[in-house]
Amino acid sequence: GAGVSQSPSNKVTEKGKDVELRCDPISGHTALYWYRQSLGQGLEFLIYFQGNSAPDKSGLPSDRFSAERTGGSVSTLTIQRTQQEDSAVYLCASSLAQVTNTGELFFGEGSRLTVL
Amino acid sequence: QKEVEQNSGPLSVPEGAIASLNCTYSDRVSQSFFWYRQYSGKSPELIMSIYSNGDKEDGRFTAQLNKASQYVSLLIRDSQPSDSATYLCAVNGNYQLIWGAGTKLIIKP
User: Fold this and answer.
1) Residue A1's pLDDT band (boundaries 50, 70, 90)?
2) Which contiguous run of DSSP H or E holds residue A102?
3) B42 touches chain A (CB under 8 A)
4) A110/B contact by beta carbon, under 8 A
5) CA–CA separation, B69 vs A78, rounded Å?
6) How many angstroms separate the CA atoms of A36 and A107, rounded?
7) Which of B30, B40, B43 is best to mutate for the A interface (most A CBs within 10 A)?
């Protein structure tokens, strides 16, 4: 497919377990963003990748959250020792270059995480 | 800290009327402004961008920018029930977009 692909689409886990969320951006898109969106809320920025490097990790809520991107393509967001407040939809988005000029971010369908 | 403010709504508009969505931003040097639409349970999608003062029209949608007042708006003419969604305003940051919390729009048939 030509769009941003995220997996799993839904994840239910128990408190204290680790989870991995995957994002496969549009081919050729160098910028990749992770956001979190709680029910009825706006987008919370988590981390930005340009290529494989992450110039800004300031949005990660705690040291339980980490992300990596390999080969300038697929990215994985890992949440360790999940807590109930981590329940949200995690959205990945990519853009051809730095997004600030065109504003054109292409979003995946999201991974809905529920922590019991 | 750069901020983007929107009224969370919901904004209820009769079908066929004009829906007016507003957004203010704090950083006076912002250059690029964007409106995204997010249907319930779906991801945001870009619908309009504007960079210069004045109006920009695209079909039933008009974006308006006033940099002196640090204000950007989105007008939707002849509103349709399919326009019911949350509209997110975004402004360029250093390397990412700064997002408003969104305004929920409900078009009543």
Assistant:
1) low
2) helix A99-102
3) yes
4) yes
5) 42
6) 12
7) B43
pLDDT at residue B42 tops 90? yes
Contact by Cβ (8 Å): A77, A85: no
CA distance B86 to B104: 4
DSSP state of A34: E
The two most distant CA atoms of chain B are separated, in Å, by: 41
B79-108 pLDDT, tens digit each? 999 999 999 999 988 878 999 999 999 999
Position B68 scores a pLDDT of 94
* B76-B78-B79-B83 Cα dihedral, nearest 10 degrees: -70
Q: Nearest C-alpha of chain B: how many angstroms from A113?
A: 14
Cα distances from B48 to residues A4, B74, B89, B106, in angstroms, run: 20, 9, 10, 19
Residue A72 DSSP symbol? T
Instruction: Report the pLDDT value the prediction gives residue B28, as an integer from 0 to 100.
Output: 87
Buried b (16+ CB within 10 A) or exposed e, A24-50: bbbeebbbbbbbbbeeeebbbbbbbbb
Nearest CA in chain B to A59: B96
DSSP assignment of B36-80 equals EEE-TTS--EEEEEE-SSEEEEETTEEEEEETTTTEEEEEESS--
